[in-house]
Design goal:
345 residues, 2 domains, seven-stranded mixed sheet, 18% strand, elongated
Amino acid sequence: MKKLLAMMLVLTMAVSMAACGSKSEEPGTAPAEEEQTQGEAPAESEDAEPADGEGYTVGICQLMQHEALDEATRGFMEALKEELGDQVTFDEQNASGDPATCSTIINQFVSNNVDLILANATPALQSAAAGTDTIPILGTSVTEYGVALDIDNFNGTVGGNISGTSDLAPLKDQAAMLNELFPDAKNVGLLYCSAEANSQYQVDTVQTYLEELGYTCKQYSFSDSNDLQAVTTTVASESDVIYVPTDNTAASNANIIKDVCEPAGVPVIAGEEGICAGCGVATLSISYYDLGVATGKMAAKILKGESDISTMPIEYAPQFTKKYNKELCESLNVTVPDDYVAIGE
């Protein structure tokens, strides 16, 4: 009887030990009770929809306040709100024209771990690219990404964590516009800010086209708003027509250019509508609002996991319109063809 009781006790202990070891682990896996810390939610994939009560934060770094950049930001925000509604909130910052402030803003976005960055204008894009290689960055109001990011043989796709939209108008067509309006001019002054790499690219390219059309061209650069009036006075005294590319410093100080060129009787062909409205007679214009909308739609696809930013090519404005500044054309006795549209109409 004692032997029988002993055997039953051994059998009971064996069954108990087998039950304790039934949660066996595969090699390299953590024990079941350690798979998740108590109270901690399971990790979500980067492309997952935000959970209830959560959303996306988008940091916006705009170089400075002027009409073109303002419209791009507005179009971006409205398009993204339309796509994501209350799921998206914006941290909108303006660098007041200071590239160093762009870097400070970007560093704060990185510290706050925003979900996406909009870099509005070339210095903002350059600061964002230097500040993070993981947070998605979309540029807008950037003329040429290869130049801005120092990419040799740029093929239209940046790769990595950067994509965006370009405000580059067909430069050959801008040269043709100057020739259409001023066929008898001889000397063309190319006025631009030396601190903006994309401005240098534009004037170099336009100069080639203008020289092919028979014009004599000379470049005049200013470093910032402090020497703009002096440089503009020089170019106005030496030129029959002035070309100003898409240039943020020129755009925010177009009144200085106008105050020099209008009394001197020298017309300005502008790279974009905002500059033209301030000091130019004509431009081949894009809609910066539409450019911002296109960028916002790109952002929605990235945030929702529908597109991989590393494979998204740079997008360009879908259409261009010949526009003219009615007031300045009348002041300078410039007649434009019927296919030009007055700014503001």
